[in-house]
Amino acid sequence: MKTKKQSFVQAGLPSLLVIFIVLCLVTFAVLSYVSAMRDYSLSRKTADRTQLYYEADLNARKELNSIENQLYDIYRNLPQKEESLFLQECRKAFPDMNGNLLSFQLPYGESQGLFVELSLLLPQSDEDALYQITKWQVITTADWNADDSLPVFQLH
Prior knowledge:
There is one protein chain. The protein is α+β, with helices and mostly antiparallel strands. The chain has one domain (about 1-140). The protein is built from two helices and three strands; from the N terminus they run ααβββ. The protein has helices at about 1-75, 85-95, and strands at about 100-110, 110-120, 130-140. It has a three-stranded antiparallel sheet with strand order 1-2-3, with helices on one face. A hairpin with a 3-residue loop joins strand 1 and strand 2 (about 110-120). Helix 1 packs across helix 2. The model has no long low-confidence stretch (mean pLDDT about 90).
């Protein structure tokens, strides 16, 4: 009888060890696959968001180019190179100006936008810039809704 127990232990223990190792390898393979899929999904979302930002950036630069052309037309047609006269003509061309600030916003994505603000300047010479970019930032355009669905301990 001792020979039967020894043969079971000799054959059963390695089999259990092989089964345990196979289960460990399958578990690690599944965890690696799940982790890789999450990383891929995050990378895809990041790439999509980056592409949307650069499209909005390109559109903002086109808009800025159009504004710059209008500003140069205004500056060239000024009879006198005075800042008050320049700003007065700019307000006629851009009625939504606030003081010497001109701003515009371009949406991108579902809940974001690109906000650009320019400070208009009267140049000292014909080669100087007519504006200075004071803001070029991503803003949130959607309303924020707090998630208060979790039951939190409250004192009565």
